[in-house]
Write a structure and sequence with these properties.
2 copies of one chain form a homodimer. Chain A is mainly α. Helix content of chain A is about 55%, strand content about 10%. In chain A, a hairpin with a 7-residue loop joins strand 2 and strand 3. Chain A has a 3-stranded antiparallel beta sheet with strand order 1-3-2. Chains A and B meet through helix 1, helix 2, helix 5 and helix 6 of A and helix 1, helix 2, helix 5 and helix 6 of B. Chain A binds a DNA duplex through helix 3 and helix 4.
Chain lengths: ~120, ~120
DNA sequence: ACGGGTACTTACCAAAAGGTGCATACTTGA
DNA sequence: TCAAGTATGCACCTTTTGGTAAGTACCCGT
């Protein structure tokens, strides 16, 4: 019954759209590592410490279906697959950089605020 | 034994930190509207169509505790409160701009990918 | 034949996020 | 006095997200 608003078909602003693509517990990390170059599944898993197979695969599939990453199956004798950023994905990573910078500059404030929320809940 | 990595205690990269602050179903929208200037609670609620009181208050509180927005209670006779961006919040919004731009440019691709996922699940 | 490595897949569960709706306390205007 | 508006709080429930643990199917070295 929340069916008003015939003018706004999807997103209120670009950021809104972008967040649909990059939010997910492991996605920023995955993008961070893939930005360094094509990476094999196992290698990626070892890089993104703490991720489970289920999660890694799931997030990779979503990124793939969003056109951000590309899966390459070499069809070789011992299984061999790798993941890389598409040009589209690379453009996203470029756009993310200022946000990375902001986060780096204020990492401590952010961490402090998170702690505050965690303890006083 | 997941106690490796003595250098980075919290975030893998700045983006990771930033996402803790801006993810939340209504936060980008809220920031988008607050960027236009201080806004009263009720006004904000009417702008962010579809949000419930609970959600709006919750997200505002989180943004406030993160130092992004400022709540001003004028202590007036008929209740009067408004919300605005702090300078810190304004710097965040500036850093978000490229991501907004990216999202705007690719809104259609993103929407298409979302549909694809929704229907084939 | 066995253990280990590759890249996944699946079923089941817990926790977090979000939504609905009612309650509060105070006001002003009809 | 009653309805409506202000800004919030709270209980309850559903949906979404994430985590655990196991299994698959293939290959390689010993």
């Amino acid at each position: 019954m929340a069916k008003e608003n015939s003018e706004n078909p999807r997103f209120i602003c670009g950021l809104h759209a972008t967040l649909h693509v990059i939010s997910g517990k492991w996605k920023p990390l995955i993008l961070f590592f893939l930005d360094k170059g094509p990476t094999r599944y196992g290698e990626l898993k070892r890089s993104v410490r703490g991720v489970s197979d289920k999660m890694l695969i799931q997030q990779l599939k979503e990124l793939e279906s969003d056109g951000i990453v590309q899966r390459t199956d070499y069809g070789e004798i011992p299984l061999r697959v790798d993941y890389s950023l598409t040009p589209f994905g690379a453009s996203l990573v470029r756009a993310m950089e200022p946000l990375c910078g902001w986060g780096e500059e204020h990492e401590e404030d952010i961490a402090a605020a998170m702690d505050r929320r965690k303890t006083s809940r």
